[in-house]
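Tip: read the tokens left to right.
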């Protein structure tokens, strides 16, 4: 399972969706990255493959960063790479 995580302006918590295949995760990463670069579309809707009813819509101008990483059982989900925050 692969996680695509977005950091937003003025938000301490990232948004994330999951993809089962690396190619799908990389494709979504590039879509978000291209949207950030061009500012189009203005609104981006992301759907999660792991949790089928999970959807999020975000204004592209509010996205600061995007990352993709593999969710592994070894990490136990307690510590994420990149821009995660420790409680």
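Filled-in amino acids:
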């Amino acid at each position: 399972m692969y996680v695509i995580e977005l950091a937003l302006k003025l938000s301490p918590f990232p948004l994330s969706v999951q993809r089962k295949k690396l190619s799908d995760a990389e494709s979504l990463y590039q879509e978000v990255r291209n949207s950030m670069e061009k500012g189009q579309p203005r609104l981006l809707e992301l759907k999660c493959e792991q949790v089928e009813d999970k959807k999020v819509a975000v204004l592209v101008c509010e996205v600061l960063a995007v990352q993709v990483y593999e969710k592994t059982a070894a990490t136990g989900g307690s510590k994420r790479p990149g821009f995660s925050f420790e409680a």
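The first strand starts at residue 2 and ends at 8. The two ends are 24 Å apart (CA to CA).
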